[in-house]
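Most newcomers find our protein records easier to grasp once they have seen one. A record pairs a protein's sequence with a compact description of its fold. An example says more than a description, so a record of this kind follows:
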Amino acid sequence: MPCQPVFSSHPSSLGSLIFSSPCFFRNNQQDKLLLHATTISFSARNQSESTLSIVPNGVSVVDRPINEESNSMDFDRKNARSRVQNLVDRIRALPISERIRIIHVFEKEQAFQNLSGFNDVLLALFIADEPDLALNLFCSNISSYNLMPDSWTFSIIIKCHCKKNDLDEAKRVLENMVEIGFLPSVATFTVLINSFCRRGKLQKAIEILEFMGRVGCKANIQTYNCLLKGLCYLGRVEDAYEFLMKSKKSLVKPDIYSFTAVMDGFCKVGRSDEAMELLDEALEMGITPNVVSFNTLFNGYCKEGRPIEGISLLKNMRERNCIPDYISYSTLLHGLLKWGKIQAALGVYREMVEARFEVGERMMNTILRGVCRRSWKEAGLLKDAHELFEKMTRNEGCAIYPNTYGLVIQTLCVAKEVDKALMYLNEMVGIGHSPPRMITFNSVIRALCSEGRVDEALSVLVLICKEERRIPSRICYNLLIHEFNRQGRWFDSCTVYGAALKRGVIPHKRPSKQATNYSSRYEFCIVD
């Protein structure tokens, strides 16, 4: 079955308008979106024609000629933004439970003397995340103020319904808006199309696009970008790619956001190489990529386990005078750490610090743990672990997590820096951190015993026993008994063994009967 046009011409009072615009056609057999360039003609309508209609809420709109929405915003935009922001700040300053009273405050201030002031309040409520208040104000009060809504009023109401996820009502308002003689702007149509696409309702979005064409409103690239994202959201990446390629030949040319939307779709399904090819195509068209384009690729490479490719991408980014942002660095850094590329992660971390980005607490802990683990095999990283740890201890806003603290202590034990390990263990307990994991205690006891410092190792066991409901592990007792046996301290070995049995722990090691030297000074410090 041949493709049939979705759009149809519709009379408009804007005068004779003939233009070429990208329009959608639906292939009923393949259920795909195709983009074609076509010419749509609109005939003139009697300029004196007017409409008389009653808005469902009881607001009469008389003799209102069809006007572009932009005509209702013919005022100083800068001053308007300032007024609206002031209203937003006042609304947000109130507790949520008391915000309903702000309407009465505005009434006393005579904010609703004209439609412009009324629209400012509606918009402020929308921006302040109070769409219900905005809708109640519109439905209940606009007629009492002897005001008639204009195109901008309806546009705000549509946005409020979209924010509430009441898209069917938003669509009804849009249709009613056209029925009473207003032509919504492309921005208003795009808001609703985008809302449907973000919720995976692509068919509904296409219906709005068809309606848009029927009333004579030309879609722009922002509209098509919403549809590209909607296709990718549903996993229809091939359709999105086909749409993008056809749009390159249409009158409305794709921009970097068009390419980025499809690139993101490819990256999410593990096709980052094809996303990179799309970036190259954009460059060939003279389109300058932005930081979001590169961040999309960083995310794709990291998800696919190829974060090292992000290093060269970071270099490519700088060569094109595109400055990496926090998301660029953090995404790449997270990927490198996740896939064990510690040396590369340290390099990116240093670049991030040089660029004066603040590395978050969680990320700092992740880096330190990764460096600590790798330092067990690469001794050269121990210095980096020291530097990171010292930096975090000096930074009051960056807490060291208990598991990170414990891993630092274990790392010092592996590196034979037992004195520092013991000092940090006492610090960790002394400053009120969560109790160290048993593996941390085991590491310190093992390191001390390996150096023959069994008395200090025994003090660590005492430290464990002082904690309520904390029972030392069998490993702790085994290490101590073995070292006491090795040193010939049979009585101390028996004391530790007895303390273990009293706490319900049966060590594998037993006191050696061949021991010759012993000391009884720890007899009472372990046994309760």
Notes: The CA atoms of residues 464 and 472 lie 6 Å apart. Confidence is low (pLDDT under 50) at residues 1-75, 515-528. The first strand starts at residue 4 and ends at 5.
